[in-house]
Amino acid sequence: MKTYAMLAAMVAAALSCAASAGMPEDVKSINDNWARIAYQMNGSSHQTTALDQLAHQADLVVARYPGQADPLLWQGIVVSEQANRANIFHKLGLATRARDILARAYAINPKAGNGGAAMSLGVLYYKVPGSPIGFGDSAHARQLLQQALSIDPDGLDANYFWGDFLYDQGDKAGAKAALLKALRAPHDPNRTVWDAGRRREVQALLTKIG
Fold first, then answer.
1. Which terminus of the chain, N or C, has fewer Cβ atoms within 10 Å?
2. Predicted confidence (pLDDT) at residue 119 exceeds the cutoff of 50
């Protein structure tokens, strides 16, 4: 499975999924701790342990806010990150669980996390292998990522993942345009760790494209 920096997913990540107005503090803490683990913590074993603890915390938060999309979105992002870092025997199972959680968030509110629910689902659909190995589907990924972009057209995450998808599909020119637009997104003073980390990823992909 390709790397999912999640929302991603990431992920992720909402990932343009900046903590939405009125988000409870315990939900926002999932957001903040995910960014700290993904971008500041060193050592894969430390990250794995921290993610396991964060996943348990996310489970409790989801139970605290039944029927709400934002807690589910961040639970799905944490599980997506677990899938990204898991061994080959556990990747697909965790990715499938993340997809199901994110699909629940999306069903409650397709615009959850300022498009983060659609985007995070889209990322999974192009990062996970297709049939017969997994559930990957590039056409479905394109639809979801375009929906996320329509909700947050100038967002850092929406444009980064759209660019990453286009690069994955062989469209280097389109990818570069999307990534340059991502860098023009306003900085988020409330999520400085995520903001700086994501911009490093954008720059790294631009360097790779050349």
1. C
2. yes
